[in-house]
Amino acid sequence: MTTTLERLCRALAAAFAAAVLAAPVLHAAESVLTPDAGVAEARAAFREGRPAEALEVLRPLARRHPEHMNIRFLLGLAAIEAARMPGVAEADREALLDEAIVSLFAVLIDQPGLVRVRLELARAFFHKGEDSLSRRHFERVLAGDVPDAVKANVQRFLSQIRARRRWTAYLGASLVPDTNIGGASGDEIIYLEVFGAELPFTRSPEDLPTSGVGASLWTGGGYEHPLTHRLRLRAGADLAHKDHAGRRFDDTHLALHAGPRWLADPRTELSVLASASRRWLGGSVEHDATGARIEAHRRLTDRVWASVHASWLDHDYRGGTGRDGPVVDLLLSGTWRVRPTVSFSSAVGYSEQRAHAARFENRSRRVRAGINVALPRGFSMGGSAQVRWTDYPDYQFFGSSFEREDRTRTLSLSLHKRDFTLYGFSPQLVVTHERRDSNAQALDSVGNRAELRLVRQF
């Protein structure tokens, strides 16, 4: 007679044998699952509201077939929806959204024109609270050929981003090799009129162009406190510093601002801000400035944005040189996003400096145009050109007075690798050529500089 213990042992042995035999079968089934079959299975689970199960199918497929764009896209989509399921812990939610961002971003590295993928990436950033990045990608979606229903949905996301914005921050740094740090003229000999004759004078070495490698740091941020549904109270600060050996060319600028921000309608906003700033040159305070500025932004179409910046700042210079007085600045800029991967920018501006001493008064006009293109393999390239005209009506030089006229031309090229980051900072290489032509002696200058920038938006 078979005892109860013997029957139990036989049952356990049979169960173990079945498990051993089943394991290779399951492994084989997983290993022979083709990308198309896996995508179909994941889509079925996703349609039935089971994104977690879709992820279980897609994750091993993504490891074996990293080049398969449909798998990457579905993995990102499933991760977003899994993060939004009820009862998901905050840490798991963050991890799922990070997984979605990585997966979707990988698709856009090689195919930056895929609007649907960019839309889901924007949603992932939105749910993660990365509003600056989310807004940037949503705006690019609007530049694509998308249905009206999608555009309306994107506009709702943008409205929510604008309404919930509280904190903003940025941080950047760069190394700057420069062939002419102070923008000095390369002429070693200048000619001055003495008793009716032009005589040559040799300039001192310290007045000639100085080359070297400097470092720059810029940072800032702000906070907005809601007063009403459409009215906010803004406050913020900005700091920029350039450092060179010897401190002679060191330049630091600190600015504070505060005032109301009015959300006039879903496409328009206006800020009126009190402003105060201080600038240091060579380690010493050069001037303080107080005044106000106005900022207005308007989305003209889904692809075109326009901005107006106007400021009036009263400058108080150290040393009583006669330079004290207000500076008025006006800038009109616009951006036209032709398609999600191509955008044009332009700007026109006017500024005027008034001073107690007429020799320091000047007027400037400037025009700038630029283009930025997102390319395959994760590269982005940009270029810009600017021309600035500056007039000094009563410029004085060694006792003589005349109307000085300067023209400064600036050309810049930039290269950015979108899929490479360093501790969250995005590197960018910018090369700039600048030339100033002047009718004043010894004020012509030519300079080239290269900047390796590291920038992060928070």
Question: Your description of this structure?
Answer:
By secondary structure, the chain is of the alpha+beta class. It has two domains: 33-164, Tetratricopeptide repeat domain (Serine Threonine Protein Phosphatase 5, Tetratricopeptide repeat); 169-457, Porin, CATH 2.40.160.60. It has helices at 4-31, 35-47, 51-64, 69-83, 90-110, 115-128, 131-142, 148-164; strands at residues 167-178, 189-194, 197-202, 212-226, 231-243, 251-265, 268-281, 284-299, 304-317, 325-339, 342-353, 362-374, 379-397, 400-417, 426-438, 445-457. A 14-stranded antiparallel β-barrel has the order 1-4-5-6-7-8-9-10-11-12-13-14-15-16. β15 (426-438) and β16 (445-457) form a beta hairpin. α2 (35-47) packs antiparallel against α3. The longest helix is centred in the N-terminal third of the chain and has 28 residues, at 4-31. It is elongated. It starts with a helix and ends with a strand. The model is unreliable at 1-6 and 11-31 (pLDDT under 50).
